Every structure is written in structure tokens, then in C-alpha cells.
Structure prediction request, 891 residues.
Amino acid sequence: MDPILIVLIAIAVFVAIGGVAFVSTRRRGPDLELQPRGGDTAVLDRDTVDRGDVAVLDDAVLDDPAVDGTPDGEQDSDVAVLDKPEVIEEPPPVKPSFFERLGKARSAFSGYLGGLVGLGKVDDEAWEDLEEALIRADVGVATSMALIEDVRSKAKENSTEEGAQVLELLKERMRAEIADKDRGLTVDDGKTNVWLFVGVNGVGKTTTIGKLGRRLKEEGHKPLMAAGDTFRAAAAEQLTMWAERSDCEIVRGNEGGDPSSVIFDGIQAAASRDCNIVLADTAGRLQNKSNLMDELSKVRRVAAKEPGHVSEVLLVLDATTGQNGMVQAKVFAEAVEVTGVVLTKLDGSAKGGIVFAIESELGIPVKLVGLGEGVEDLVDFDPDEFIDALFE
Amino acid sequence: MFQSLTDKFDGIFSRLSKKGVLTEDDVDEALREIRLALLEADVNIGVVRSLRDRIKERATGEAVHKALNPAQQVIKIVNEELTESLGGETISITYNDKPPTVVMMAGLQGSGKTTTSGKLAKWFKSQGRNPLLVGADLQRPAAVEQLRTLGRQVDVPVFSEASDPVEVARKSIEEARSTGRDVVIVDTAGRLAIDEELMEEVRLISEAVSPHYTFLVVDAMTGQDAVTVAESFHDKLELDGVILTKLDGDARGGAALSVKEVVGRPIAFAATGEKLDEFELFHPDRMASRILGMGDVLTLIEKAEETFEQEEAEKAAEALMDGTFTLDDFLEQMQQLKKMGPLSGLIGMLPGLPKEMRDVEVDDGELGKIEAIIKSMTIAERATPEIIDASRRARIATGSGTNANQVAMLVKQFSEMQKMMKRMGGMGTKKAKKNRKGKGKNKGAKGKQKGGRVTPKNTARVTEKGTKKTKAPLMLPGLDRLDEEDFEKLAGELDELGS
Prediction:
């Protein structure tokens, strides 16, 4: 058979049947809207599990007009703001300063903006470098651009356009943005204070509670840990080990149980054992899973029931988190009235710049910073050092 | 945010009239916005820069697509570039001749290594393997306990002991051998990339078990730092792949791109939920449009293109059956065909062709020859080949490097094919009637469904979110009801005419 003929027939048949089919196979695009798959099912499962042993409490809580235990912040006399922890025991744990702890991370990056400081007049390229430094620190594009634009016009106005001056101007501008925030942790006297720890999965909520328990004990408080993460495998075991290490009381429920009831039990136990702070752990949850966020709102409502008094809701954020951190802060704040941020894993190479955007946009102050795995590595947030570190 | 981005694009490009090619300015303007979109999605700034250069080079000077405006076209190119960057080589797990096959997990704290180990164990089980989970995270309190719980849930044994991680890892291989497990999954403690001591430890673990696969577990929410992390781990461990976790969140997941660019190894798996079976192979195309955050725009582009191509194809098919199919149409279809690979392979795939046709070796060079002949014709000649006389034939032959005989043969066969296709249309109609009476041949072949006409057979295009779109082949009237007999007859007729 003549090859030309075959080609002809093949093409004719191709045109007739195959053409569009083949083309469309090639084209069959991505499922463009990536659904948060399995979200609903996962939640259903959690819910089903919950139903098990909550029934009683559930009703009680839902029918109860939610008691709002948030301190209005203006209370003065009976609000004790935590002081710097005093060192009680040996070995004298030389409290590392924020900056010293960051040393490790800094060395890897020092000199990044070194060229800028020595620069006479900052040119376009240097301004871009500066903006890039902010973006690299996860401050976010919009915030970085706004900051640079602002500082740039100010620099021009004051004709302070030398490298070192510009950098100082920028830092000043940033410091002003997050200055004057109350970063103390609230402990109201004579109450069973509840500090609720919330956040997405894997940010370090349980670890933070573990470290904080030790610190509070050293400061003379009587903390009790409530293992409200009943979902993740062995989360309660993890918290129990921390409680043992720091010699804290702990209340835990069954795996798969209702977190509200565990925390409620914790508050009851704290009240009867005369503990003044309940450190309430919760399961990590992604903020776009609305039923899990509803569950969390419920936890907060339950925690505010007498004798519980919710005086802190701390959003734990991982320093490696990028722009999604802002979404997390917004959604969690809406669900549970977040009072502060704990920034963890800042001893790595990540700068955690998103908390700057969160503070300046949402006004939620960063209160604590995690700088290592040791029990003494949870320190108070220092805005000046944090801002300096962004540019190192 | 996404909406405003779309608006911005509309704004930029509404004032640009359609030009023949994308100019550098068009591309620059679109790229500025795309840079922002990528940075907002946490793609590392260095990676954004190199991407931008690549896209610019690729887009500038490209012919403007008839169905798209310049902005859409740039976005399309960006999307393709992202998909390519994220995809490329895929991972296929091969198993060691001498079991066990060792898999090691590494990553930062809280990225999801332990949970992922459990999921991976389940996945290996579904592949018919007998995995062993190894708890070498002795750092985090209760990490081993967590792994044991997961092990119970997926019914996979867990090995660990309270010694040191390197020792546990080493012993686990022996354990796997003696208990007949053929895959070992080593869960390690989370560590910071800059922690020299712990990075050295993970290297020692790796040395102790010499893993066949080392996976870096990366949280989809990771920001700019993803690059540093990936670099350090790759440096120490020589990664084989990446596992992306927490993809069921709403982070845009630019970290995936950053990591892929740095490590250059495939993103093997994606964890998409808290349940242990919410774990799947990675889809670069989904990730690309997620990072770009322009799902709507992309759908629009796709639709525009589809409509465009469908119209073209419908036109061709219509032309074919009413005999107005010109050599130009033919040429275009042939070029389409060539894109799909060697002709002999394609012929094998076409349904309904007689056996002797399938067996004939077709030289793809023939296609080139035909192309050359048609391209050497004038427009008038292509539209009405009848006007080709001896002198035109000679000119065409010279122009295409063939001889007059070959030109004549092509013209003749082409016109016979036109006639044949016309007849096929008619025959199909007749057969359809027969079918309706219930006497039609029904050989049970899948392609022989009822219906016909030049409309897509299956017009159901589900456009709900997330569901896949199906588009059925365009059917020529009656062609779907032709069987082998008819083809043989036609081929015989044609052969006779041709020789």
C-alpha cells in the first residue's frame, strides 16, 4: 500500500474522530480550584469522636450564655504583669538574651546588607536591596513596599540618604509601628486564670506550654497543664512528660475525647488544688477548617465558665511560616479573641517577619519567643532586638 | 487578593490593542504583577527572579494567540513554566533486590515527619509491602509513642529503643531482616538547618542505614526560609525527594517551588489531611495554579483556548464531510498530528482501521514530503487543486524537492479522499437508520455509541468546583458506526483508484 495513501486515510480518520479528543486530553487542565480536600470528612470524624463522652457538658455549655472572661485590660490593681523571671535554682541558668540566642542564626547571614551601610547615597538598587531584605524576612510584599516608600520619601525630605542613616530610619519607622504594646502576660489575682494555646499543626504549642510551666513555677505561680489536644497521637503523653520535667500538675482525658471537657476538668482541678494558672493545650488545626474553628470557640466559651477566667489566648506561630501567618492570625483572632502571639523556632534561619505585619496590621502583640529546645529557651519578646535581627 | 489581581490585569491590558506579537513592554507589565503574586505565595525571592527571567525570555516575541489577550497569554506561559518547574521528573519507587528498602524522613520541627511516616507506611502497605516504622526521634517527648500509636492505626510494627538515634537506626535494619519486613521507614527528630550538631547527627543516621530514599518533609506554609532549609538538608543528606505537608490548609504553597528549584528532585508526595489515607502523589499542575492564585483567570484562558480549538476542529470536520476540506485544512491537521508523535504509533491507536493498514510501516518522512508539496502550492491551488496543470505540477515538484508524479499522486489521492469522506457521511446516515430498527451490527465496541452529528457526543461538561471536565471527541456523522468491513471496502476502493 502506498504510504501517501495511508497517511491520507490516517489523517482523515484522525480529523474525524481523534482530533479534538487528543487535543482535549492534552489540554485537560489542572483542576483549577484546588479544594481543601478531605476537610469535611476529617472534621466529621473528629466530631463523631467528640460526641462520645461530651454529651452532658455539651448541653450545659451550649445553653449557657457564653461567659466572657476576657479581662478588659484596663484593670489595674488586680492585674499582675509578669516580671522577668528570677533565677532561683542552680545551675544558675544564665538567661540568654534574645540577641545572644540569635547569634547562631545571625552569623550565617551577617553581611547581607553590609554593603548598604558603607554606601554614600542610597541608589535605586540599594533601595531594592532593602526592600528585598524585608521580603526575605517574610515581612510580606505589601508591608515591605509601604515601609520602603514611606522611608524613602522621608529620607529625601531630610536629605538623610546615606546607607547607615537610611537603615536607621527604616528601623526607627518599624520600631514606632510596634512600640508601646503591653507584652506582659496577664495573671489576675484570686482567679483561676486560663491561658489558652491555639495555632495550626506543628507550631510548637505543647512544647511552649511545657517550657512555660517551668518558668511560671520558678516565678512562684502554681500552674496546671490541661492536655486539651485529644486528637494527635500521643500529644497528652508529650505534655505529661513536660509536666514531669517541670513538676507541674496535669489533667488529661482520653485520646479522641472532647477537648472542652478536658479543659473544663482542668479548671475544676486547678480551682480545687489552688492552682492559679491553667495552661490549656489544644489540638493544632488549620484555620480554614471551619468546624474545627467552631470547636475551638466552644473550648474558649467553656474555659470562661466559672471558676475559669480566660486571661490569655496565645496564638503560637512558627517563625518559618510565610504569608499564611497573617491569615492564621486573622482567623484565630476572630474565633477566640487572641491576646498575644508566641513566636517559636526563631533560633533557626527564619526571621519570622510576618509577626511584624501582624502586629502593625492587627495590633496583636508578640509576647513570647521560642529560641531553642531547652526549657530556658522561651523568652520575652524584645521588639528592638527583633527588628535589628531582621536585617542581620 | 486574587480578585484584585485579576482586576489589575484587566486594567493594564484593556488599553493594549491586539498586536501581532508580545512586546517586551507587555511582558514586563504583566511580570510585575506576577512577581507580586509569587512573592505573596511565599516563593523565594531569588527563585522568583530566575523564574521571571525565564518567563520573559520565553514570552517576549511569541506570536499573540488568536483567542487570548496579551495578559492572558503571559499568565498562561507563567502557568506552564510553573507546572514544568514543579513537575519534570517524577519519582518511582523501586525496591531493593536485597530487602529491606530503606526510606528516611528528615525536616524541621513540626513539619509533620512522624505523621507522614505513618501515612507512608500505609501507602507502602497498599503497594503490597511490609513496612517497619522506626522511631529515631528520641528528642521530642513522646515522639516514639506517637509513632507507635500511628503504627497501631495502620497495623505496622514500630521499632525503637531508648539508646541513641544512630544506634536505633542501625539496629532497625537487622530487626527488619529478622522479622521479614521489606521496607524500613526511619522517622528522625526535627532539627534546624543551622544546628551543626544535629545536622551532623542526621548525617550519621543516614550513614548507618544508607537509605535508598531520603525525603525532606516540608510544611506548605513555609515562607522565604524554605530555600535555606532545603539547601542545608540537601547538602548533608542528598535528598531524593520532597514530601509537602498541610496542603489542606489555605497557604498558597510557594515553598514547593522554592524547594523544587533548589533541590532539583521531585516532589514525591502531598499530604492533604489529618487522616492517614489523606496522602497522595503530587500533582504539579494543581500546585502551579494554586501558587499563581489565578484559578479564575486560568479557567478563562483554558476555556477561550478550548473554544478556539474546538471551533477550528469543528470547522475542519464539517469541511471534510461536505467536501470543502482544502489542502490547507489538511496541512493544518497533519501538523497537529505530527505533534503527537510518530505516525505508526498513532495509526495503531486509531480505532476502526483495517489490520493490514496497521501493520504497514509508515515512514514519518512521508509526512514531510506531503507537507513540502502542499506548501509549494499557491493559495489558489490549495483551495482548488483541480487547476493544477502540468506546468504548475512541475513548479510544485521543483519547489518541494519531489517529482511531478508524486505531486500528481497526492492531488489525485486527496480528491479521492474527499469523495470518500463525503460518501462516509452518507453511509453513516443510512446505517443509523438500520441501527434504529435494531438490525445494525453491534460488535460491542466502545466507540459505537449512538448519536452523531458534528456536535460533541458527550456535552456534559461538569464545571462544578474541583470536578474534572470531560470533553468527548468530536464525531463525524456516521463515522462512529463504521466497522472494519466498511473500512476495508473503502481502503480497497481507494487503493484501486490510487494505483
